[in-house]
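Example record for the data management plan.
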Amino acid sequence: MRILFIGDIHTKQYIIDNIKELDSKYNFDKIICTGDYCDDWRVSGQKSLDLLDQIFELKDSNPNKYIFLIGNHELSYLGHPCSGHNYEYEKSIENKLKHNLYKLDLYYSIDLNGTEYFCSHAGFTDEFIYNELDGLHFKDTLKKWNSDKLQYLDKLSLCSYLRGGSSPYSSFLWCDAKELLLSKTNLIPYQIVGHTPITMIVPDEDIIFIDSHSTHPQGFNIGDKSYLFWNENRFEILNFIDL
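Corresponding structural encoding:
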């Protein structure tokens, strides 16, 4: 099985182009994007709309191949605004998201050589699992939430002080890397997440952070623009220079 994992996109057209080019080269079985398609520094709301159109077109082209998860910047237009929220375009983005919400998932779990990895935008902590997802029954709760996303937006918006919120813990759409690493995560030890910008992907960790495409407000790259690739039986890194 060949799987491409994509971190935060934030309206970047080149990532969509990279996905298509990499797929033509490697013929992936699945392409999993961990959320945050909307918003970026100094970009118009129209770019968010255009990007959403493209991911929904990809989903329609092959629903089983493309997995698009929800990030906090999509949650932003479903009633819980965060930094970067575009108020001028908020109604248009909200309408597009709600009309296509069935094409997005809150999380995705996948078996890789006998190890179950949970993919989400920001990551699961045991504190959130035990307090909001009914502990050991969290898989059943997640399925219920995923089937009726709008009903659980308040819980999904929980954000701890590490990301500027007031909750004692964060949801898996808001969890900071520091919070995730401090949690014991006994229930979901293996995860693939975006949300927290990184300089490079380290594939041999239990929790793999893949947001390597974010930038500083001035436009400088934070990460190396790489992608996580599961190639048959191991993780590899695909860099933009490989295209």
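Summary line stored alongside the record: The chain has a mean pLDDT of 95.
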